Amino acid sequence: MLTLEGLSKTYKTGDAALTEVSLSVPKGQIMGLIGPSGAGKSTLIRCINRLVDPTAGRILLGDVDLVRLGKADLRRQRRRIGMIFQEYALVERLTVMENVLSGRLGYVPFWRSFLRRYPGPDIQRAYQLLDRVGLIDHADKRADALSGGQRQRVGIARALAQDPELLLVDEPTASLDPKTSRQIMRLLTEICAERGLPAIVNIHDVPLAQQFMQRIVGLRAGRVVFDGAPDQLTHDALTAIYGEEDWNAMRQGDDEQSQAEAEARDRMAALAR
């Protein structure tokens, strides 16, 4: 379980990115993190894995307070946290397999990673993960030869190669088309369910969050202003998170877009026949 207690982050400029955020994410729960730009979503995720040092509060992964760790202990604890990035963060000139194996860097001696001589069990596990994310036939391709959706699948496999106890996912669909976005979110939720793996997903697409998340937390100006089930995300709740907007019209627009996409697929299928 991940527990945040009074987590705050104030920058040297005096800007408060997070203010006394307290929440828990139990085993197996997939939590969507929503809010306007600048609400503190990415800062929250980066505080959890200590890419950003919080100003105050506690971050408990199990019974370990990540805030109090020195560099050596922090490196060991980060192996427990898988990170999936919006821009994939792959090494473009390396193969898909080599990128997945980089998820084992925290477990192998430097000379093995430098020479790319990973232990046999790590290689076997990487093949299994590539098969799970649907990329087994692309193992020897360079990362820069892949589509955006394929790159995100490599990022998922790399994070799972760590054998993490928690997944942090930062806007996984921001650079993807609607169909690929749903495929990626479906894959993430299935994998988390299979492994009982808790996840925090920073996601800007509210309908997508409602479709796939078990729980949604809304941030505004660094504070939690909503915490509940997707079906509790009412007009008033969305207004509290984002401000005034015609949410019914937006939802109607999303429905019309989904219908248009379905009709386009049907036309393509008809042409193929």
From TrEMBL:
InterPro entries documented for this protein: AAA+_ATPase, ABC_transporter-like_ATP-bd, ABC_transporter-like_CS, ABC_transpr_PhnC, MetN_ABC_transporter-like, P-loop_NTPase
MF (Gene Ontology): ABC-type phosphonate transporter activity; ATP binding; ATP hydrolysis activity
Keywords assigned by UniProt, alphabetized: ATP-binding, Cell inner membrane, Cell membrane, Membrane, Nucleotide-binding, Translocase, Transport
Biased composition (Basic and acidic residues): 262-273
Record keyword Nucleotide-binding present: yes
Keyword Nuclease attributed: no
Annotated segments matching region Disordered: 252-273
Any single GO CC term annotated in Swiss-Prot or TrEMBL for this entry: membrane
Pfam family, one: ABC_tran
Domain ABC transporter, chain residue ranges per copy: 2-246
Protein name (database record): Phosphonate transport system ATP-binding protein
Lineage: Bacteria, Pseudomonadati, Pseudomonadota, Alphaproteobacteria, Rhodobacterales
